[in-house]
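Sample intake sheet
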Amino acid sequence: ERVRPAVRVGFKLVRTVLHLLRGWWIIRLHFPRLAQPQREQHVQRWAAQMLAIFGITLVRRGPPLSSGPVLLVANHISWLDILVMHASGYCRFISKADVHHWPLIGHMAAAAGTLFIERESRRDAMRVVHHMAERLRAGEVLAVFPEGTTGNGVELKPFHANLIQAAISADAPVQPVALRFIDGRTGEVSLAPRFVDDDTLLSSVLKTLGARDLRAEVISGNVQLCEGRDRRQWAADLREVVEGLRYRVHDAANADNPLP
C-alpha cells in the first residue's frame, strides 16, 4: 500500500515531463508556421491535457469567459492557475520577469504570449501597462493576478491597482474570475496545489500529483466597465466581486444544485 502512491506519483511525473517536452517541441517545430488562432488552440489543448495528466477535473461556472477585448482579473493560488486559465480559454498572461528565465518553462511561456514585468521597477510597470493597453485595443484577452503573488487559497490578499490601469487607458472591460482547488471527495478546499511561503515548486508539484480527485473550479463574473472609477477604486471593487465568487464556488461545491 505504501508503494502504490509513490508509484502513481512517479508515473504522473514522467508523463508530466514528457508532456512538457512535447509542448516545447511543438513550439519549436510548428509555431513558426501557425497563425495566432491556431497557436491559441494548441495552447488551450496542451493545458487541458496537462490537467488530465495530473488527474485534475476542470469545472467552469458562471458566464462564459469573454472572447475579448477583455482583461481577466483572478485570484492567485498556485503555479497551476495558469494551466487552469489556459484550459478554460486562451489568454495572454502578465507574469513576473523571473519566470522568463526558468529553463524550458520560460521559453514556453513566452511562446504562449506571456508579457513579462519587473515588479520592482515602476518604469517597467508603465511599459507593460502601455503594452497591455495596445493589446486590449487590438481585441485580445489578457489575464492578471492583481494580488501580485500566490495566496494560501483561503484568504484573499489586497489587489494591486497598477495593471488595472491598462483597461482604463484602453477603455476595455474587465471580467472577474475566481479560482479554487477542491477535494472532490470532501467538497472542501484542497491545499495540495498551494505555492506559498516556504513551499518549493517541486514539493508543490509532488503534492499536487499525489492528490486524489482534485477539482479545479473556475467561476467567472459578469463583464464590467470602468464607469468613472479610478484604478484603485476599481481594483478594490473587483476584489470584492472575486471574494464573493469564491464563496459562491464553495457553496456550489457543497450544494445539490450547483451553479450552471
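Comment: The chain is about 45% helix and 15% strand. Strands lie at 56-61, 70-74, 92-96, 115-117, 141-144, 174-183, 214-220.
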